[in-house]
C-alpha cells in the first residue's frame, strides 16, 4: 500500500486546527499587482487610482520603492460598487 503525500505538514493540512480560519489563495489570481496594472484593470485615471489608495479603498504594500496593490482589495472594491449599483436599481 502506498501513501500519497500532499507536500503539506500536519499543521498546514486543510481542516487542521492550525489552518482553521486561515485565508486560502486562488493560485490563478495574483496576490498583488502594480498600481499601473490596478489602474488598467479597473479602467480609471492616474488621479483616481491614487485617490482610492489614499481613501484606503484599495489596500497596498510597499516593497522597496515599489507600491503594490493587494489584488483582493480590487475585487472587494468592485463587489462593493456592484452591490451599491444593484441596491440603487432596486430602489
Structure explained in plain terms:
Mean pLDDT is 83; it is low at 1-14. Strand 2 (60-63) and strand 3 form a beta hairpin. The protein has a domain at 29-90. It is 41% helix and 13% strand. Strands 1-3-2 form a three-stranded antiparallel β-sheet. It has helices spanning 35-42, 46-54, 71-90; strands at residues 32-34, 60-63, 66-70. The chain contains three helices and three strands. It is an alpha+beta fold.
Compute the separation of the termini in Å. Answer: 62 Å
Total DSSP helices: 3
Overall pLDDT: 83
Largest sheet: 3 strands, antiparallel
Radius of gyration over C-alpha positions, nearest whole angstrom: 18 Å
How would you sum up this structure in a few lines?
The protein is of the alpha+beta class.
Amino acid at each position: 500500500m502506498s501513501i500519497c503525500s500532499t507536500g503539506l505538514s500536519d499543521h498546514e493540512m486543510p481542516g487542521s486546527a492550525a489552518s482553521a480560519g486561515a485565508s486560502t489563495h486562488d493560485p490563478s489570481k495574483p496576490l498583488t499587482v502594480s498600481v499601473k496594472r490596478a489602474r488598467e484593470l479597473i479602467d480609471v485615471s492616474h488621479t483616481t487610482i491614487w485617490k482610492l489608495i489614499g481613501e484606503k479603498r484599495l489596500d497596498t504594500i510597499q516593497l522597496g520603492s515599489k507600491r503594490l496593490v493587494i489584488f483582493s482589495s480590487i475585487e472587494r472594491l468592485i463587489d462593493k460598487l456592484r452591490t451599491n449599483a444593484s441596491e440603487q436599481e432596486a430602489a
